[in-house]
Write a structure and sequence with these properties.
The complex is a heterodimer of chains A (214) and B (221).
Chain A lengths: L25 H41 L5 H28 L2 H6 L1 H12 L3 E5 L6 H18 L6 E8 L2 E9 L4 H10 L3 E5 L5 E8 L2
Parallel strand pairs in A: 1-2
Antiparallel strand pairs in A: 2-3, 3-5, 4-5
Helix pairs in contact in A: 1-2, 1-5, 4-5, 5-6
Chain B lengths: L1 E5 L3 H13 L3 E6 L2 H10 L4 E5 L8 H12 L4 E6 L4 H10 L4 E5 L6 H12 L3 E3 L1 H9 L6 H4 L4 H11 L4 H8 L3 H15 L8 H13 L6
Helix pairs in contact in B: 2-3, 6-8, 8-9, 8-10, 9-10
The chains are: A alpha+beta (214), B alpha/beta (221).
């Protein structure tokens, strides 16, 4: 069974005839630009607000050192402020992870999925080929897989996630999940001009996505 | 202690430099990228180099720079700072070296005591791992390790977490207010339950065995 095209962000008529100078359809180009934009936003958080708050934590540490012989109340107040800064940074990290995971940007699909799976605590075997597939394909693949695993929940048999390159296509297979998880989780694949096929059945199906990549 | 640092964010770099000086360390130089740090250290010796992981040369200049530094100056301690505590980076760092090496979150070295303790442990040859990351590895292990880890007593879990932070027996003993002898007994019991056969007397090998165990998949990775 193949998934039907969904509504995509920045969508317009999705006819293959409508192509720009780079040979991509307008819808697919707009989709790709959105992923580049998300990656830029994450970098902006990292290089901007996050770094500024980390520097503040250091400056507070310096203040504490300078007033070491001062009021004991000052020490406790600085502790409290540093704890607040740490909490703010953690919130920024959580937001950044939903925009575009930094590890996906820096290390690629395999490492980012490996780390995500560890945090979800689901029994998953990740086997993604080394190498990079471009920010859009990697973003789509990452959120499709993690969305699918989050919806599935813990327990059950081991899920296998495999990714490999076939020419200019990233072939991503998720094995051992309910086929009904394909539609919500893999919608974005269609927006990027890819295809999604499901086989098997409830509980132990295989979702295979073919995602155009760089 | 003589410290060199490389960090591309000017605000953080300057803050760290001031905190290091306040802690009584000599900052032999600070640079905005890894290549400049290698250049600096070719003429100015240091005891520990502090590196931001995500800096030029992109994307993870801290790691490539550290590999070069470890080859050029094997006695130089390395401390990685990052905005993220990821086990992926921890494993890459342990490939660079398992002695005199550390990985901490940027905001967590924001006190003279913590900064000096971290640097002193690295200079003494220890591995220093961000407690948040060590805690996550022990408390949220990979699915196939969860069963075994629940067989540990609460005290053994504490010891395992502190081992994953890279702490020595004496360090663990001090944190838990017990004797080093008691720590040794806990460690022997943990290694028995996890079925690990590392030389428990060799600190680096022991930390490495624990971390590899917590990170590796069933069929190896």
């Amino acid at each position: 069974m193949t998934l039907e095209p969904a509504h995509c962000a920045g969508d317009a008529p999705r006819t293959p005839l409508e192509r720009g100078t780079d040979g991509l359809s307008r819808a697919r180009r707009s989709e790709r630009d959105q992923w580049l934009h998300r990656r830029r936003l994450e970098r902006q958080l990292h290089d901007g607000a996050a770094l500024r708050i980390s520097a503040l934590a250091l400056q507070l540490g310096l203040v504490r050192h300078q007033v070491l012989d001062g009021e004991p109340g000052v020490d406790a107040a600085i502790d409290g402020l540093q704890d607040e800064l740490h909490a703010a940074l953690q919130e920024l990290r959580d937001v950044a992870a939903q925009i575009y995971p930094p590890l996906l940007d820096e290390a690629g699909l395999g490492p980012a999925l490996g780390e995500a799976v560890d945090r979800l605590g689901v029994a998953v075997r990740v086997d993604v080929a080394d190498g990079r597939f471009g920010p859009a394909a990697e973003g789509v693949a990452y959120f499709a897989v993690t969305g699918c695993l989050e919806a599935r929940g813990a327990g059950g048999d081991e899920v296998r996630v495999a990714g490999r390159r076939e020419g200019e296509v990233l072939v991503l297979a998720v094995d051992g999940v309910d086929e009904r998880l394909a539609e919500p989780a893999f919608d974005q694949v269609l927006c990027l001009g890819g295809t999604v096929e499901v086989a098997g059945g409830r509980g132990a199906g295989t979702i295979t996505a073919r995602i155009p990549c760089e | 202690m003589r410290v060199a640092l490389a960090e591309d964010g000017a605000l953080f770099r300057e803050g760290l430099q001031m905190l290091l000086q306040a802690a009584g360390h000599e900052v032999v130089g600070s640079t905005a990228d890894g290549d400049a740090l290698v250049e600096l250290l070719s003429s100015r010796p240091a005891d520990v180099a502090i590196l931001d992981i995500r800096m030029p040369p992109e994307p993870d200049g801290g790691l490539v720079t550290a590999e070069r530094l470890r080859a050029l100056h094997p006695g130089l301690g390395l401390l990685f700072l990052s905005h993220y505590a990821e086990s992926h980076y921890l494993m890459r760092i342990l490939q660079i070296g398992t002695e005199a090496i550390g990985y901490r979150l940027k905001e967590k070295v924001g006190s003279v005591d913590v900064l000096s303790d971290t640097l002193a442990r690295i200079e003494a040859g220890e591995i220093v791992i961000e407690p948040v990351l060590a805690k996550r590895l022990v408390e949220r292990p990979r699915a196939d390790k969860r069963g075994v880890l629940t067989t540990l007593s609460e005290r053994e879990s504490d010891v395992l977490r502190l081992m994953a932070e890279g702490r020595s027996n004496n360090g663990i003993a001090a944190q838990l207010y017990v004797t080093p002898k008691a720590v040794e007994k806990h460690i022997a019991s943990i290694f028995g339950k996890l079925n690990l056969h590392a030389d428990t007397a060799a600190h680096h090998r022991r930390v490495l065995a624990v971390l590899t165990y917590l990170r590796s998949q069933r069929n190896g990775e």
